């Protein structure tokens, strides 16, 4: 059979941002299911003693969102960001930064005593933005727009009275660290970046264990 798109001026192509699409879809599914079943009780993260040693909570925190509307907004923003940033970072690295930023946010919640939060998707976005800003800074690019955007988001969270804004700070820190590691190892073996991801995860989980034991 011939190619039915052969004579079309615009041919459909493969997505350049599959990771962001999958993550956005997963977040939206979680948002929908949380309105049908008590998913927040299973996936919320924070300093509540009930959550102690339930490792899946911080590991999956980046996929949580408080409402369907918030899930849609986060998903759309993630896809829009992913279209420009995922081809730069690579799908695997993009997903790693996103999920590890959620882990960093959950760790910050426990360290600062916030009992519970079910809004980790924004942490993934914060981490992606922070990682990209660091990469651009190391390449001597203008990052004023990135800094302004991140700052406005954080201020908005604080002024809105959200108790889990500390998670945003944790995500930014983790994203910035990973961005620095990624930029420094771009021309070296990619295995170094994988090791760095593992180190970040271990440090966050170790910090969580300390809070659980004290």
TrEMBL record:
GO molecular function, one term: serine-type endopeptidase activity
Domain Peptidase S54 rhomboid: 53-183
GO cellular component: membrane
Biological-process GO terms, alphabetical: proteolysis
Keyword Membrane annotated: yes
Membrane topology value: Multi-pass membrane protein
Main location: membrane
TM spans (from-to): 21-47, 59-81, 88-110, 116-135, 142-159, 165-183, 195-213
UniProt cross-references to Pfam families, sorted A to Z: Rhomboid
Origin superkingdom: Bacteria
Coiled-coil region list: none
Subcellular location as annotated: Membrane
Key words of the record: Hydrolase, Membrane, Protease, Transmembrane, Transmembrane helix
Protein name: Rhomboid family intramembrane serine protease
